[in-house]
């Protein structure tokens, strides 16, 4: 489906606990954009593969199983939730310790990334079908691989100690430094600030200030 001129795509990349999710949700509310958390997609696929008894080291089984997944999208408020075989994997499962420990291993496998490529791009069609003004998609490779032509591309980063503090406040058990190391060093679509993207250091900013920084150019473009 061609994207109409007044349909905006906002790409937000960054490491774990860099503030992507809260910021994306706030922008989704402010501008009526579909919120797409691609980390939740990789998490749902990880949970499903683990449920099927597939280990990330068993590449043959990963290739076989990931190619057979039936993916669809269900709206959860303004957010897109991935359905696998008609089932949405519950939040508690996708944020579990087991998924935290395995998701970076599965998401480094090129066939896993390839299996999710069209699905992620297809979220623009989902947003249009449901009357959103655009979409805000967060992840690791949105501005570089999924939507390199996005209208806005941001890269959020923060001091590792501050990110660990934020994740601990959320109550999650997560080795964010280890996930960042794996996500940044993989061969396919590594985590990096894409050329031309606007980098924002969120270490000393509260959520309101981060949202304001990203919202300003979006509001200016939409007012034209
Ligand atoms: O955003 P998150 O921390 O919930 O993402 C979980 C993992 O998914 C992350 O450690 C790496 C992977 N991921 C990815 O490889 N590419 C994306 N676009 C989004 C997430």
Task: Please work out how many helical segments DSSP would assign.
Answer: 11
**Percent in strands:** 15-25%
Across the major sheet, the strand order is: 2-6-1-7-8
Small-molecule components bound: 2'-deoxycytidine-5'-monophosphate
The percentage helix is 40-55%
End-to-end C-alpha gap: 24 Å
Low-confidence stretches: none
Structural class of the secondary structure composition? alpha/beta
Shape label = globular
The whole-angstrom Rg is 17 Å
The average pLDDT is 92
Q: Based on DSSP secondary structure assignment, what is the total number of beta strands?
A: 8
Instruction: Note the main sheet.
Output: 5 strands, parallel
- Topology as a string of helices (H) and strands (E): EHEHHEEEHHHHEHEHHEH
Short overview:
This protein is an alpha/beta fold and 224 residues long. The chain has helices at 20-31, 38-51, 59-67, 91-94, 97-107, 110-121, 123-129, 142-146, 160-170, 176-185, 207-223; strands at 8-14, 33-37, 71-76, 79-84, 87-88, 134-139, 152-157, 198-201. 2'-deoxycytidine-5'-monophosphate binds at residues 16, 38-39, 42-43, 103-104, 107, 139-141, 179, 183.
Topology:
Blueprint: E1 8-14, H1 20-31, E2 33-37, H2 38-51, H3 59-67, E3 71-76, E4 79-84, E5 87-88, H4 91-94, H5 97-107, H6 110-121, H7 123-129, E6 134-139, H8 142-146, E7 152-157, H9 160-170, H10 176-185, E8 198-201, H11 207-223
Parallel strand pairs: 1-6, 1-7, 2-6, 7-8
Antiparallel strand pairs: 3-4, 4-5
